[in-house]
Design a protein that fits this description.
The chain is of the alpha/beta class. It has 3 helices and 21 strands. The chain has a 21-stranded mixed β-sheet that branches.
Length: 291
């Protein structure tokens, strides 16, 4: 690589923010010093020595570029601040590669180009994780998008969460909206909307809001679904709902199956299978089978 090519490469790195101005000017200074030394010294031997200095400067520049690229692939820059085990992203920040930390706080717009692993994650702005998330607690008051799966002990969503993979949480609370492939939990409360393939857990309390939630299959031991008060009520649609104790209101489903099933007002069900069942006069059920 000649000097002009190296200079263009350096300028490109500086424009992209991959090297600092200090490093850029340090490399230029080495080139300049090498050139002046060459012009002020006579003789072939001196010229060869000056050429050696120039090559050393070019090697130095190449090494600086490579080291900087390696650093950016594994660490953090641009609007990202680390204080011990706490990473805070304000304004606009990017993490190139995986991020492992005790605490992550996002108050602006952040992108993690890898996996995120943390004890606590708090999102008040917008966070995009290109791969998966593993944490103890995840709180979303803004937007969280994920290209992989999310696994945590406690999940609280007051904004919007969207992931292409599964969500696994021991406990979760959703007051906003969540879109995922499958949702697996022990105990959950919903006061927003959910769009996913399968939901599986132990207990679920669901207060339907104005939006419509869509789930292919729900398997929960104890399920309670009821719309919130007000003129505009939400709705839940599902292919299949199964559990031990089920109470549903304003739900449309193909099959509802359980030990004790209560079908409340506003439901439209094709088939109910249960040992014990109660069906509201304001519900529509096409077929009933006692187990």
């Amino acid at each position: 690589m000649d000097k002009d090519e190296m200079l263009r490469a350096l300028e490109g790195m500086l424009a992209e923010g991959k090297i600092s101005e200090e490093t850029y000017y340090e490399i230029l200074k080495r080139w300049k010093d090498a050139g002046e030394e060459k012009s002020n010294i006579n003789g072939d031997l001196a010229a060869r020595e000056a050429e050696d200095v120039m090559r050393e400067a070019e090697i130095y520049a190449a090494r600086e570029i490579q080291e900087t690229e390696d650093y950016l692939d594994t660490d953090i820059y641009t609007g990202v601040f680390r204080n011990g085990d706490v990473v805070t992203i304000t304004g606009s920040g990017v993490v190139r590669g995986d991020l492992n930390t005790e605490v992550l706080k996002v108050a602006g717009s952040a992108t993690i180009r890898g996996h995120l692993s943390a004890e606590r994650v708090s999102v008040a702005g917008a966070l995009s994780v290109e791969r998966g998330v593993r944490a103890e607690t995840v709180k979303v008051a803004g937007e969280l998008s994920c290209g992989g799966s999310i696994e945590c002990s406690a999940l609280k969503v007051a904004g919007a969460l969207e992931t292409k993979g599964d969500v696994k949480a021991k406990r979760f609370s959703i007051a906003g909206g969540i879109t995922c492939r499958n949702l697996e939990f022990e105990h959950g409360t919903i006061a927003g909307f959910v769009k996913c393939e399968d939901m599986k857990g132990e207990t679920l309390e669901w207060k339907l809001r104005r939006t419509t939630s869509e789930v292919r299959r729900i398997e929960v031991e104890r399920l309670h679904v009821k719309p919130r008060g007000g003129l505009f009520r939400g709705r839940l649609t599902a292919k299949e709902i199964e559990g031990e104790y089920i109470y549903i209101h304003s739900v449309k489903a193909d099959i509802v199956r359980g030990e004790e099933v209560e079908i409340g007002p506003g439901c439209v069900i094709d088939l109910v299978e249960a040992k014990k069942m109660r069906i509201s006069q304001r519900a529509k059920v096409n077929r009933r089978v006692r187990l």
